[in-house]
Amino acid sequence: MSDDNQSPLIAVIAGEESGDQLGADLLTALRRHYPHARFAGIGGSRMQQQGFESWYDMRELSLFGFAEVVGHLPRLLKLRKELVARLIAEKPLVVIGIDAPDFNLGVERRLKEAGLRTVHYVSPSIWAWRENRADKIGMSANRVLCLFPMEPPIYARHGIDARFVGHPLADRFPLVSDRIPARRSLQLPLDVPVLALLPGSRHSELERLAGPFLDAARRVASALPGLRIVIPAANSRALGTLKTMLAHGPHDEMMPILLDGRAHDAMLAADVVMLASGTATLEAMLAKRPMVVGYRVSPVSYRIARMLNMLKTDVYALPNILARACGMGKDAMLVPELMQDNCTAAKLAEATLALFRDSERRGAIVSAFEQLHETLRGNLHGHAGDHAAAAIVELIDTPRTPR
User: Fold this and answer.
1) How many Cα atoms within 13 Å fall on the side-chain side of residue 263?
2) Residue 251 and residue 353: Cα distance in Å, rounded?
3) What 3-state class would DSSP assign to 128?
4) In 280-359, at which residue ranges do the beta strands (DSSP E only) sit?
5) What distance in Å separates the CA atoms of residue 176 and residue 228, rounded to the nearest whole number?
6) What is the pLDDT of residues 155-202, one digit of tens each?
């Protein structure tokens, strides 16, 4: 540990709520190594509750897709320039960028070139995009912390220091899940079919997905007597948006139950989950719940990605990606995926009903999800935040080599 300063600075830049949770877990672990350190940069409410000093509102980085980013580009460039200048001036022990690769990798590269140590926590999806992107990540980060065990070997092919630190979500779910406590907690009957609906957390996601998801859920309810639909809102803004949409929809016995948060309870209580592609698919997998995944990006973003041939995979949901990476077969499709033009209410409802009506298929999916949960734990013992902190401390304590 450096003793150049009584209160050394460790900088963290987190984007989105998932990054805020990772950052909070990481701060808890790092404080055990650096009890007198000052933590600052960009973070959300969970990190700030631990004394983190956020210089900017984390929501400024919560953008997705080419079109969305382009519209905010001048503001993001100004923020990045100010942040880089301040970090170079303050000379932290290390700068840790958590996720948000479109923003963080550019910041990290400039700081690394200026002689600061940099870590990128959460590898971008290099299995889905061009693998040579790994080289660019290596130009930004002295060390990459990976949540999935198949990622470090990819980086190794490019001579980049990457460590598997485990996935924090794997620590939060039991290997074998129990539906009954979750249903009692949500005051749901034990003997009725339950569908959990998670149409995303970003405003842009809700704009594109909430309508088809709600329509699909009503179609499923019409075919399954007694179905209960549970919708956990990801945040206060999503809660308001969903309340408005439900208020303008039909009011009948199929009216969904809207929750303020409690996504894990909703998943555990459900028989089937319909959700947006993203981290939530991993949560549903760890809850051992069969799922149907749908997603749409803006038409402009989608056309650009297709035109540039940027997508290098024909699967998008993390359970499907993990199943293939873990040797369950190159054509493994545990989860139905309805992307872009296929993400319609009719197709979502059809795929969801097929799962409700096939108990044997649901059982096979649950068994596969249990295997994948074990894989995510790897041979690591303890919590992912502790392993991430240990990899960062090791980097800080490693003598610098001449540039």
Assistant:
1) 25
2) 22
3) coil
4) 291-295, 337-339
5) 23
6) 999 999 999 999 888 888 888 889 999 999 999 999 999 999 999 888
